[in-house]
Amino acid sequence: MLELTTQRCVLRPLTLSDAGALFDIFSDPDVMRYWDSSPWQTIEEANDYIQASKPSLDEPEKLVLGIYEQPGQQLLGKCMLFNIDQYSRRAELGFGIAKAHWGRGIVNEVGFALIQFAFQEMQLNRIEAEIDPDNTGSAKVLTRLGFSQEGYLPERWIVDGRMSDSAIYGLLASQWSQSGR
Ligand SMILES: CC(C)(COP(=O)(O)OP(=O)(O)OC[C@H]1O[C@@H](n2cnc3c(N)ncnc32)[C@H](O)[C@@H]1OP(=O)(O)O)[C@@H](O)C(=O)NCCC(=O)NCCS
């Protein structure tokens, strides 16, 4: 089983026993404010998400990992690589953690480990991230991880009747290695 370890956390695939904790995080409207879907309404959505996120050889286009804080293994959130394109060796990066843990540098720490894995082990060449330009926390994390803003797509999403723009960020393997990380 894939497991990545950072200073404070371990990243590994979610299991059905995480459904309650995952639901608590992603049913919070503040956590979902800039997401591309509504806050979860029922625990079934957490169960379905976990089932669909199981690592599968038939479906290598995504890698979803729970973020567990050591030593108690509390689930803080999740991070993922999705839309993995094996031919062009690129993927999109996503992340979300519980409000109680914002501002602790957690996503910066685990994002670093996931990106390192993506470039070194998965041999990806490019990682992209799409965020709401108002999501200043995400923009700061991405910039700190070495991403640059590459594009801006107005009115790209309509979620619950609310229209929002997208800022597109990118990071190349060559930029990552040149930065000496
Ligand atoms: C955005 C998010 C991923 C940032 O992760 P984090 O682990 O809190 O990030 P950090 O602790 O490294 O903080 C990075 C910076 O963003 C700021 N920040 C973190 N969360 C913030 C928030 N919700 N609003 C405004 N600023 C925020 C931090 O204060 C810090 O600022 P600084 O660099 O000036 O000190 C996290 O807040 C989150 O999960 N939000 C909800 C889900 C979400 O929006 N995911 C991204 C969808 S693309």
Task: List key phrases describing it.
181 residues; alpha+beta; Aminopeptidase; 8-stranded mixed sheet; 5 helices; 27% helix; binds coenzyme A; protein-N-terminal-alanine acetyltransferase activity; transferase
Number of domains: 1
Q: How are the strands of the largest sheet arranged?
A: 1-2-3-4-5-6-8-7
Structure classification: alpha+beta
How would a textbook summarize the main sheet?
Answer: 8 strands, mixed
Number of helices: 5
Query: CA-to-CA gap between the ends?
Result: 25 Å
What Rg, in angstroms, do the CA atoms define? 16 Å
Strand content: 25-35%
The CATH class assignment is: Alpha Beta
CATH topology: Aminopeptidase
Domain N-acetyltransferase: 9-168
Protein name: GNAT family N-acetyltransferase
Keywords: Transferase
InterPro entries: Acyl_CoA_acyltransferase, GNAT_dom, Ribosomal_N-acetyltransferase
Question: SSE layout and pairings?
Answer:
Layout: E1 4-5, E2 9-12, H1 19-26, H2 43-53, E3 63-69, E4 74-85, E5 90-97, H3 106-120, E6 126-131, H4 136-144, E7 148-159, E8 162-172, H5 173-178
Parallel strand pairs: 5-6
Antiparallel strand pairs: 1-2, 2-3, 3-4, 4-5, 6-8, 7-8
Helix pairs in contact: 1-2
The structure holds coenzyme A (COA).
Coenzyme A is lined by residues 31, 34-35, 77, 94-97, 102-108, 131, 135-138, 140-141.
